[in-house]
Structure formats: C-alpha cells, structure tokens
Design goal:
Length: about 180
C-alpha cells in the first residue's frame, strides 16, 4: 500500500502568502522537515512535522491542508547552524538565500543623488530577493543617464539604463523591484 502522507515537497499552502523554494531537511514519515521559502515575498525558514498514513497532512495544518510554520527570523542562525551539521550542502545553499545584497560600484557624481539612487536600488531588491545579488550603478561620463547592473546566483543578470524622467529614485526602485521579484 502506498504512503498516504503528504511529503513536504508538496506542502504549498497557503498559496497567497507561501512559496516553497526548497526542502532542506526531510526524514520522512513522523519526522520533522525544514524548508526555505518566501512568505509574502520575504525569504524565510519554515518547519513542520510530516504526517503518516493515519494523519496524512501532518502538522501544522489549516482547513484540512498541510502548511508550514514560519520560523521567526531571530532563530534562523540556530537552525542553519544545526542544518550545517546534518545537511552541509543544503545549509550552504540556504545561507546564500539570506545573504544581503551589496553595491560594488556607484559612480554617480552628486553625493545626494548617489545616495538616493543606491537606497532606491537596495529597497527595490528588498528582502524578497535571493541574497547574494551584486549591484553596479554607473553614471557614464559622456551620457546623461544612470545605468544599473544587477547580477546574482544561477546566472541572474539584469541591466537597465534610466534617462530623463526615469532617473527618479521612485521609478528606479519600482523597475528594480519588478526585475528582481523572482530571483
């Protein structure tokens, strides 16, 4: 008789808030599972107890659907440290998910503009995006535009020039947000 319990790789509720990225730890029926995912766009760790044939949906559950418990951020380091002992390769990949993005270059000449555009780019990336993104912001010497280049894991590369009315922090923030939403 096949297992009736729902494996953690199939726990995708609630769909409006939760997106499963990867199950990091899974010891099967009646045991704990740990995952990395997004809760309302933010990178999070989540845990659950797998069910069994008598209780297929495990715990936690909501309205008869299996769900994940979102771990408060202050506990992430402890869980990742333990995960490093039991699943080192998966722990390293999960750690990258939480690494802050960094601006490597910003050549905008006017200090106030340089700061405002850099803040807009980082706010656009926000917590939603997978960590480890590197940002380069340029103001070419012979051109009245800003150029933003963002690179990251899995070959992610994005580049956009902003000219005229597009050079506002608000516009740049929104374009960066849209570009990095799925990274």
């Amino acid at each position: 008789m096949p297992n009736l319990y729902i494996p953690p790789t199939e726990v995708i509720s609630p769909k409006r808030q939760w997106t499963l990225v990867s199950v990091l730890y899974d010891r099967g029926e009646n045991n704990a599972a740990v995952a990395v995912g997004r809760w309302e766009g933010d990178a999070v760790l989540a845990i659950r107890w797998n069910g069994n044939d008598d209780n297929p949906i495990g715990n936690p559950q909501s309205r008869g659907l299996p769900t994940w418990f979102i771990v408060p951020q202050e506990f992430n380091d402890s869980i990742l440290k333990t995960l490093k002992e039991v699943e080192p390769e998966k722990a390293a990949r999960a750690q990258e998910f939480f690494v802050e993005s960094v601006v490597l270059t910003n050549t905008i000449a006017i200090p106030e503009r340089r700061k405002a555009i850099q803040e807009a780019v980082l706010e656009g990336i926000g917590k939603r995006s997978r960590g480890g993104l590197t940002v380069r912001i340029f103001e070419p010497a012979l051109s009245p535009e800003y150029v933003v280049k963002i690179a990251g894991p899995n070959g992610f590369n994005w580049e956009r020039s902003f000219l005229g009315h597009e050079e506002t922090p608000e516009f740049i923030r929104e374009e960066v947000r849209k570009a990095t939403l799925g990274t």
